[in-house]
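fyi for ur records
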Amino acid sequence: MDLNIKIFQWINSGAGVHPVVDGFAVFFAEGGPYLLIALFVVLWFFVGKNKKTFLLEATETAIIGLAANQLIGFFYFHPRPYMVGLCTPLFPHGPETSFPSDHATLMFAAAFYLLLARRWATYGIPLLVVAALTAWGRVYSGIHFPFDMVGSIIVGLMSTGLMHWLAGPLQPLNEKLLQIIDQVLGVLIKRGRQRRW
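which gave:
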């Protein structure tokens, strides 16, 4: 039997049997990227300009990773576990290619960039833990194979390297983006306060 399938069956074996574990898996499988977005939004209001640049670059790294996934998916299709009758997924999902995982790529790319390129371990390590939980949750839930997550890790590392190389050339653009984002947030906050009063 294929190693990918064997590992999948081992991870997925408890799905649908343990409600608490099922809920935990689905939470991270679906919610990982939302946790990332929430963290970045909160941090934006509490860190200095340099760290905001890190957050913006980490976001761009995730976008590069997702773009790479789309390119891979254009040339290579791999069915998901439930599409080949290996399981019943814990939540519904469309019959799209499984390799690599967009959710895991987004999480790993952002985490790797903060941790490896910017040495921001305070947030890079927790994000890496959440990325790992997201990867586990998507395999446990029957949405992905383990090797999909290996692919996501590789894409995340490659995206981190590419973004680290692009950080210098993109600096003028990112300076403009930082100004625009801060201006837009300032307007939104001001309007919110006016409505409250």
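The chain has one domain: 17-178. thats all i got for now
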